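Task 17 of the worksheet. Students: predict the tertiary structure of the chain below and write it out as structure tokens. Keep your answer in the requested format; marks are given for formatting as well as content.
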Amino acid sequence: MSSVTIERLASLIQRELAPIVNTEVKDKSFGYINLTEVKVTKDLSFATIYYTILSDDPKVIEHAKEAIEEKKVVIRMELAKKIKNIRKIPDLIFKFDEALAYGNHIDRLLKTIK
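Model answer:
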């Protein structure tokens, strides 16, 4: 499969997955889950989904990770209902996107210097 097709599939997965994740994983402690990036392996067997939440509290982030992992099977089944034009839906690997939290940390450091 060409890289263009893999990128297109990653984009499709991200677009379809965002509402599914936020419907299945509802929790007031961390609120909305923002999917920042999806990477699909060349053999289409795995999709790594990077996400952020509005909190940078380690306890809240851990709670969000646990909630997503608990619902991962249901999320994948709902995704399969939405994307019908591929033979096998990739296994989903959710990873917290550290970039936003790191950026916020740097921003806070810069503000304390001023």
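Marker's comment: The chain has a mean pLDDT of 90. The chain has one domain: 3-113.
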